[in-house]
Amino acid sequence: xxxxxxxxxxxxxxxxxxxxxxxxxxxxxxxxxxxxxxxxxxxxxxxxxxxxxxxxxxxxxxxxxxxxxxxxxxxxxxxxxxxxxxxxxxxxxxxxxxxxxxxxxxxxxxxxxxxxxxxxxxxxxxxxxxxxxxxxxxxxxxxxxxxxxxxxxxxxxxxxxxxxxxxxxxxxxxxxxxxxxxxxxxxxxxxxxxxxxxxxxxxxxxxxxxxxxxxxxxxxxxxxxxxxxxxxxxxxxxxxxxxxxxxxxxxxxxxxxxxxxxxxxxxxxxxxxxxxxxxxxxxxxxxxxxxxxxxxxxxxxxxxxxxxxxxxxxxxxxxxxx
Length: 322
Known about the structure:
The chain is α/β, with parallel strands linked by helices.
């Protein structure tokens, strides 16, 4: 179901929710809100999936039996905080970016952001803008772009190869931002669009963070080696004390905590064993959607593949019955 013809390029929150409501009504979908899945187990003898879900409000356990099971709980189910020696005894405030609200409460404090993706860069900018003495840990190479450059790339890639477009985007980024390696930000070898396609990692859309880094207002550090009290030691042996650490270190899948018998499809991290586009199907009617790190476009591809496969299975079963 498409968006209305007059919908803007970037859908506002309220309009997106209205679209979801319309989608549910049109296809007669009956979501179970405020419900958590406890376990999903395949019954070999019954040849079906048995699932237990819990109503959060009433604590009532509901049992489901299904021929097919689609794991669509997302690759970002739970906050991911890396294991760092001494973190447990950090004397300041340590939070995940999902809990970050505003830099206003950290004005005048020494703040460290771990992670240089879009969330990390935006949080670092917000902290610095509210008067925090801000540092950021850049753990891996990253492409920094403007939204205009990315928008141009998304248009051009429909007409020419990814490699050609990536080369142009990197050149444009160099013109806008210059050589960021002198400031501790190194570009990946793969171009921004190819990297997104292969790993799911998006380029960083700069909101002003790079300018503050160049001015020295935001300091860049290497990865953390250990923490002692409120002192953080980095891999280059430099040390600084901090009042707050914000971990913008992403999320992780939690599918393996409730899905049993899922080894035909998922690895130990709760992500597909097979590479895109052959990742979406396991054994015994098991499928996954949205776990391939391909964004909304990847989810749409998964959904179509799964729906067509289930339809084909039903048609085959009906033919055999006749």
